[in-house]
Amino acid sequence: MSVRFPEGPLWLIGCGNMGGAMLRRWIAAGLDPATVTVITRSGKGAPEGVRSLTALPDEEAPATLMLALKPQQIEAAQALLAPMKGAPTLLLSILAGVDHAALSARFAAEMIVRAMPNLPVAIGKGVTSLYAPGEPIAAAEAFAAPLGHYEWIADEAHFDAVTALAGCGPGFVFRFADALAKAGAALGLPADQAARLAIATLEGSAIMAADADVSPAVLADRVASPGGSTREGLNVLDRNDALVTLLKETLAASECRNAEMAAAAR
Questions:
Q1: Largest CB tally within 10 Å, which of 52, 58, 72, 230?
Q2: How far is Cα 71 from Cα 139, in angstroms, rounded to an integer?
Q3: What is the arrangement of strands in the sheet containing 126-131, beginning at the earlier edge strand?
């Protein structure tokens, strides 16, 4: 897969799990590592061929600057970037909960885009949510496309909910996979075998759902014959909307935390 990335240097402020996963995917998709600079406190963690620094270089601002830090580090990022010569054309921020207004108040750039990727971007199967006022920005899409599915969010008020669903979602799916495996082990299966079966079942089901022309709810009913074993299991999950209620509470807790982080960053 070869992608046409925006021209000019790319600087990453931070290169943790998510930022590093995105960068490695971009390089795999054809981004020249020699055009990338990673700035971290440790000077470590950058992929091979990428310049790694512990301080801002004495150079003109890059074409693209990405903030790949924890939201609690926004003030440190602002102090680090204060001496930068000029302003980047595009500022990409993956700081969870930090809204566009807070970014605009702290950082200068021609265009500022909030991006919320999830961890499967590492294999090109991620979901990246994007927000900027006005029309979609092609340069941001060029960076999002190699990571998997991306969507622009029309109303920034929905961004915390999108983050809870898609950004945090892999963690919830992984927890479900672990619970499914533990439930299988509770029926007497060897734990390692139950884990393999649970993950393979999730993988196949997800691919099938993505390719289907009907909703997952319809697919579930197609699997469940009347009076059969699947139907009996679904009856437990569906009783009093137990599963839906649990996930509503789960996403609401994540959304609330995103809002708290946004308030702290203002």
A1: 52
A2: 23
A3: 51-53, 36-39, 10-13, 64-67, 90-93, 111-117, 126-131, 148-152
DSSP 157: G
Global confidence as pTM: 0.89
Identify the CA nearest to 65 among candidates 100, 121, 110: 110
**With 70 as the cut, is the pLDDT of residue 1 above it?**
no
> What is the CB neighbour count within 10 angstroms for residue 137?
20
Helices (H), 68-190: 74-81, 100-106, 138-144, 159-162, 169-186
pLDDT per residue as tens digits for the range 65-100: 999 998 888 999 999 999 999 999 999 999 988 999
CB 82 within 8 A of CB 59: no
E-strand ranges in the chain read 10-13, 36-39, 51-53, 64-67, 90-93, 111-117, 126-131, 148-152
Residue 188 burial by CB count (10 A; 0-12/13-18/19+): exposed, middle or buried?
A: exposed
